[in-house]
């Protein structure tokens, strides 16, 4: 049975499931390849609103949506049932009844997941029927399979912005953080993605950041998780740390040295988070104290992907503006020459960031 993706996962231009969703300045999301073709054709209006765009429009990666699409596809299609799906209320009752067996609860979660994949109207009906409370109890289960299925269903219910604030109001963050701290590897990855989804709504970023252990649990997952868990934890931190107060919290939880080591191993998302943390004084101070900080960022400039290079340039710009010592070290490591070479890069953001860093390096050097 093929996975039925929500319409929100489809590019408004190609009508295909997005593989690299990016946000245009109009606020609408498109698949990068589709909107790039639109721009390359000379268009300078949003395909949806028809409002004018800048001469060089920015394409901001929609990490939250990308993770949601990826995790939605990872949930295996449910087994076919010989009988029709039961009514949501009956399924919810099975989840909450003390007499229900583990097998019946797993089956109910599977059927509710099938329902939640259909459209936003059904997801709204499920939340209005009291599904969230029942599912959150399953998220708190000691059984890893039940917990994982419950998190997958909760992630589906969070697809709609109207549900995101409601989920937080019903206590979702506490259950999610508990899964982050003590769940199986799959549960921890799903819990991190769940925080990314909730953080799409601005008010939730502050709520998540202020919740005890939320950011600390993500930092722990960065430190001891495997590939997928690290990536989802970094994605969640990126989403949460777009709220300025959370940057200081992440630094206090020890994120900087862990991100530095992960960035050195080649995870671009870690460099992106460092770019955000470098915007706060505490983050810059911690990076300055980290032995080898500049060398790691220079390695990303030399060997990283376009995204890694873009954010390494941003991070170095913030650090060099803050510290003449880092500026001097960057020059000794050949950053100025690297930046000069990047002025001809095909990526407009890389060219712009390289030009900005050149100005910073020359300005600080002339003040010595």
Could you give a quick summary of the protein structure above?
It comes from Trema orientale. 67% of the residues lie in helices and 2% in strands.
The CATH architecture name of the largest domain reads: Alpha Horseshoe
Radius of gyration: 22 Å
Count of helix runs = 22
CATH top level class name of the largest domain: Mainly Alpha
What topology, given as strand order, has the largest sheet? Answer: 2-1-3
Count of discrete structural domains: 3
**Tally of extended strands?**
3
Query: Structural class from helices and strands?
Result: mainly alpha
Mean pLDDT across all residues, rounded?
A: 88
**Overall geometry:** globular
CATH topology name of the largest domain, in short, is Leucine-rich Repeat Variant
Helix/strand order:
EEHEHHHHHHHHHHHHHHHHHHHHH
What percentage of amino acids are in beta strands? under 5%
**How far is it from the N-terminal to the C-terminal residue, by CA?**
66 Å
Main sheet specs? 3 strands, antiparallel
CATH H-level homologous superfamily name of the largest domain: Leucine-rich Repeat Variant
Report the uncertain regions.
Answer: 77-83
Helix content: 55-70%
Domain U-box: 4-79
Pathway: Protein modification; protein ubiquitination
Protein name: RING-type E3 ubiquitin transferase
Keywords: Repeat, Transferase, Ubl conjugation pathway
């Amino acid at each position: 049975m093929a996975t039925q993706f929500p319409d929100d996962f489809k590019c408004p231009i190609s009508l295909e499931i997005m593989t690299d969703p990016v946000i245009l300045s109009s606020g609408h999301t498109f698949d990068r390849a589709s909107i790039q073709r639109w721009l390359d054709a000379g268009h300078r209006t949003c395909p949806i609103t028809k409002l004018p765009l800048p001469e060089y429009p920015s394409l901001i990666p929609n990490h939250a949506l990308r993770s949601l699409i990826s995790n939605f596809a990872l949930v295996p299609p449910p087994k076919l049932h010989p009988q029709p799906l039961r009514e949501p209320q009956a399924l919810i009752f099975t989840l909450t009844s003390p007499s229900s067996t583990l097998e019946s609860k797993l089956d109910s979660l599977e059927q509710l997941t099938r329902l939640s994949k259909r459209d936003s109207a059904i997801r709204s009906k499920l939340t209005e029927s009291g599904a969230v409370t029942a599912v959150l109890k399953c998220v708190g289960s000691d059984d890893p399979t039940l917990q994982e299925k419950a998190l997958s269903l909760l992630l589906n219910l969070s697809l709609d912005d109207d549900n995101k604030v409601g989920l937080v109001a019903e206590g979702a963050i506490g259950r999610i953080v508990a899964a982050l701290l003590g769940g199986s590897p799959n549960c921890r990855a799903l819990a991190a993605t769940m925080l990314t989804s909730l953080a799409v709504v601005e008010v939730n970023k502050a709520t998540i950041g202020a919740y005890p252990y939320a950011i600390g649990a993500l930092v722990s997952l960065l430190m001891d998780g495997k590939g997928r868990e690290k990536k989802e934890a970094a994605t969640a931190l990126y989403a949460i740390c777009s709220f300025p107060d959370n940057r200081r919290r992440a630094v206090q939880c020890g994120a900087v040295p862990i991100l530095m080591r992960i960035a050195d191993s080649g995870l671009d998302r870690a460099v992106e988070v460092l770019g955000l943390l470098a915007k706060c004084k505490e983050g810059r101070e911690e990076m300055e104290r980290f032995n080898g900080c500049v060398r790691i960022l220079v390695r990303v400039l030399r060997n990283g992907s376009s995204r890694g290079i873009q954010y390494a340039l941003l991070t170095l710009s913030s650090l060099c503006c803050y510290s003449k010592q880092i500026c001097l070290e960057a020059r000794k490591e050949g950053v100025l020459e690297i930046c000069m070479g990047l002025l001809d890069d095909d990526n407009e953001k890389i060219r712009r960031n390289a030009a900005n860093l050149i100005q910073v390096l020359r300005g600080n050097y002339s003040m010595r």
